[in-house]
Design brief:
The chain is of the alpha/beta class.
């Protein structure tokens, strides 16, 4: 077994023992080791490029979680509203929001769009979404009838992680650009 696989199994096992039923990941700079524009052309080189930037440690970890029956979900600010004006100019081939995230992950991981919350609150001027990723986490958690303590959340943004920890989630700061087993810090 490779070192990466061993680390993935150990971390997934630890979370399982801790009672975690769902692991939620941020997308940009957590699953990806770069920041995306939040959209890509369905058959363009940008989509292929993002697929190459999915963290190898994340792929191994996602497989280890799935082997233990732990759910995987994504909480991202890559809102489809970011893609909407580009789609008007360049046509329907432009993917945004959860469809974009799903397409980037497709070669590595099968995830349903229902398990992706892609929303950037400041773009929704006439709605009053709570700050940070509170809305995302609440949607994903309540959809499964879970308590915050049964959900682990990984994000490279310290503000999002700190807020999630305050809400009672098991919140882990990804301190590198892209998920790596040796760059994780539990925040309490
Ligand atoms: Mg991020």
């Amino acid at each position: 077994m490779s070192i990466r696989r061993k680390k993935a199994e150990l971390l997934a096992q630890g979370l399982k023992r801790h009672g975690i039923e769902l692991v939620v990941f941020d997308f940009d700079r957590t699953i990806l080791d770069k920041h995306s524009k939040g959209f890509a052309s369905r058959d363009g080189s940008d989509l292929k490029d993002y697929r190459h930037h999915v963290s190898c440690d994340f792929i191994a970890f996602a497989a280890a979680l799935a082997r233990r029956g732990i759910g995987i979900a994504i909480a991202t600010f890559a809102d489809d509203l970011i893609a909407a004006p580009i789609r008007l100019l360049r046509g329907r081939n432009i993917l945004g929001g959860s469809a974009f995230v799903k397409a980037v992950l497709a070669p590595h991981l099968s995830i349903s769009e229902q398990d992706i919350v892609a929303l950037y609150p400041p773009l929704h001027l006439f709605s009053s979404y709570p700050p940070f990723k509170r809305y995302h986490l609440r949607c994903l958690r309540l959809g499964r009838g879970l308590r915050p303590a049964q959900v682990a959340f990984f994000d490279d943004d310290a503000g999002n992680v700190r807020d999630a920890a305050k809400q009672g989630y098991v919140a882990i700061h990804v301190t590198s650009c892209g998920f790596r087993f040796n760059s994780l810090s539990l925040m309490s």
